[in-house]
Specification:
With about 280 residues, the chain is of the alpha+beta class. It folds into two domains: about 5-90, no CATH class; about 115-270, Jelly Rolls (Sandwich), CATH 2.60.120. It contains five helices and 14 strands. Helices cover about 25% and strands about 25% of the residues. The protein is globular, with a radius of gyration of 21 Å. The chain has a five-stranded antiparallel sheet with strand order 3-11-8-13-6, with no helix packed on it. A five-stranded antiparallel sheet has the order 10-9-12-7-14, with no helix packed on it. The protein has a two-stranded antiparallel ribbon with strand order 1-2. The longest helix is centred in the N-terminal third of the chain and has 21 residues, at about 5-25.
Length: about 280
């Protein structure tokens, strides 16, 4: 096998990530998408899911020399040549041009139930089921045994949640009491990774970014012991949360930047006096 440089293996890994992100975007970024893609790659290339994740991130010589051919198989599995070049003309393929990757139709937004007339007057907005552009959701697994249980939250091989585009900044827990709303917050450059480690929380996102393909969309998530999940909130997306039920909610955030008290990356709006089409009041039915 020919010798392969670190730069080449990084290029291949980035191309795999770009194609996965493109497929995810076209599929509406289904929360279970990444696992299904890894399994699909594994069926066609004969690799385990853990091996595929390692290949996407590892640049160790002992790994890259023995698995470069497998990397090329993964690229072929995702559709298209292993290099972003037209070999006949040696011309780079521009973004947006066909590279042989399979086309998946982007699902249309499925509207939620129509609001009642009283809700419409209060500005309650239907919650969009299509994820806001850039938002990722990871369903967390719980491993119970006779001693208790263990729940993993974030790993260094969590595709899309951790890496060069989503580094570690810090980790902190914020508590919200029942009846209290902590909103609205956004950041210019920082991305957040939210999960709930105590009680139950309702997390709401609003895309007010100009030019975003999901501009004006609202996403809502319930986080807690009964629905353990990690939500990545990209920069520029307004977000807020409140506690559900009689207990306080403990929300763990793992942002991509540490807090700078001298130059805070914070954009705040009043939780109720704003143009965001969402009402935090509970509606019983």
């Amino acid at each position: 096998m020919k010798d392969v440089s670190v730069q080449e293996i990084k290029r291949m890994a980035l191309e795999i990530r770009d194609r996965c992100r493109l497929i995810a975007k076209n599929r509406g970024q289904n929360p279970r998408f990444w696992k299904s893609v890894f399994e699909e790659i594994g069926l066609k290339s004969g690799l385990k899911v853990t091996t595929i994740r390692r290949l996407l991130y590892s640049t160790e010589p002992k790994v890259r020399y023995s698995t470069v051919e497998k990397m090329e198989e993964i690229l072929q599995t995702l559709g298209g040549p292993s290099a972003k070049r037209n070999e006949a003309s040696n011309v780079p393929v521009k973004r947006g041009e066909s590279s042989g990757a399979p086309a998946y139709p982007r699902p249309k937004t499925i509207p939620g139930p129509a609001p009642r007339p009283s809700e419409a007057r209060k500005g309650v907005h239907r919650v969009d089921r299509e994820l806001i552009e850039g938002v990722l959701v990871k369903e967390l697994r719980i491993y119970p045994d006779a001693r208790g249980y263990l729940m993993e939250i974030l790993r260094d091989d969590d595709f899309g949640f951790f890496g060069e585009d989503a580094p570690f900044g810090q980790a902190y827990v914020t508590c919200v009491y029942p009846g209290v709303v902590k909103a609205w917050h956004a950041h210019r450059a920082q991305a957040d990774r939210f999960t709930c480690v105590g009680g139950t929380a309702r997390l709401v996102l609003y895309d007010g970014r100009p030019g975003s393909p999901t501009h004006g969309s609202v996403n809502q998530f319930v986080l807690g012991n009964l629905c353990p999940r990690l939500v990545l909130i990209p920069a520029g997306v307004q977000h807020g949360f409140t506690a559900l039920g009689p207990e306080p909610a403990l929300v763990l955030n793992i942002p991509t930047q540490s807090y700078d008290s001298l130059h805070p990356d914070e954009q705040r709006l009043d939780p109720r006096d704003n143009d965001i089409p969402f009402d935090w009041n509970r509606v019983d039915g």
